[in-house]
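Quick one, C-alpha cells below:
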C-alpha cells in the first residue's frame, strides 16, 4: 500500500497538466498544428520499424526487378510482389515511366518529401524535450507561490510544496526519458530508412536509363534512317 501511495503522490494532476500540457503547447506553437498528429503517429514506427529487414527486402526486390527487366522489360516491374508499400509504389512508377528523367524527378521529390516529414517529426519531439524542463520550473514556481501564500497555516504548505517538487521531476523525466529518446531514435530510423530507399531508387534510375533512354535513342536513329 505504501508503494501505491508513493506513486499516487507522483501523479500530481496539476504538475502533470502543466508539464505535459505546457510542453505540448510549446512544441505545437513552434512546429505548427500540422506537425502535431504526424509526430505522434511516428510512435508506431518508433516501436515497430526494422530498417535492417526493410533494407534486405529491398535488395531482394531490386534483384527481382533486374531479372524481370532483362527478360520482359521494366514495364513489367510492377509485377514483382513485395510487402513494402514504398517498394510497391517505386516499382509501379518505374513500370509507368516514359523516360528516366521523369522517374529520376519523382525519385528526388519523393525522398525530399520523406526527409522533410521525418525531420518535422524529430523536431517536434526535440521541441517537446526542450520545453519540458522549463514547464517543470513554471509549475515549480506556481507551487512555491501557493506555498508561500499559506505560510500562516502549516497544514496547507505540504500540497503546494509536493506539486513544486513533482513538477520539476516530471519536467526532467519528460525531457530525458521520453521526448529526448524518442527524437533520437526517430532520427536514427530516418537516416537508416532514407539510406536504403536512396540505394534502391538509384538502382531503379539506372535501370530506367539503361532501358528507356536506350530505347528512345534507338527509335530516333530508326526514325532518322527511315526518313532518309
Amino acid at each position: 500500500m505504501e508503494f501505491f501511495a508513493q506513486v499516487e503522490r507522483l501523479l500530481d494532476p496539476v504538475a502533470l497538466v502543466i508539464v505535459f500540457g505546457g510542453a505540448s503547447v510549446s512544441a505545437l506553437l513552434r512546429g505548427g498544428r500540422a506537425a502535431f498528429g504526424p509526430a505522434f503517429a511516428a510512435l508506431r514506427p518508433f516501436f515497430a520499424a526494422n530498417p535492417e529487414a526493410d533494407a534486405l527486402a529491398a535488395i531482394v526486390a531490386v534483384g527481382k526487378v533486374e531479372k524481370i527487366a532483362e527478360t520482359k522489360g521494366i514495364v513489367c516491374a510492377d509485377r514483382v510482389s513485395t510487402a513494402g508499400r514504398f517498394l510497391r509504389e517505386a516499382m509501379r512508377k518505374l513500370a509507368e515511366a516514359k523516360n528516366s528523367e521523369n522517374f529520376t524527378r519523382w525519385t528526388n521529390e519523393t525522398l525530399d518529401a520523406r526527409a522533410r516529414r521525418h525531420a518535422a517529426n524529430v523536431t517536434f519531439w526535440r521541441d517537446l524535450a526542450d520545453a519540458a524542463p522549463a514547464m517543470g520550473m513554471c509549475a515549480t514556481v506556481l507551487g512555491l507561490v501557493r506555498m508561500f501564500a499559506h505560510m500562516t497555516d502549516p497544514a496547507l504548505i505540504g500540497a503546494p510544496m509536493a506539486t513544486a517538487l513533482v513538477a520539476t521531476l516530471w519536467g526532467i523525466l519528460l525531457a530525458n526519458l521520453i521526448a529526448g529518446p524518442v527524437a533520437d531514435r526517430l532520427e536514427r530510423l530516418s537516416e537508416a530508412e532514407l539510406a536504403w530507399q536512396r540505394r534502391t531508387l538509384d538502382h531503379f534510375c539506372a535501370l530506367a536509363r539503361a532501358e528507356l533512354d536506350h530505347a528512345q535513342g534507338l527509335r530516333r536513329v530508326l526514325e532518322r534512317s527511315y526518313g532518309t
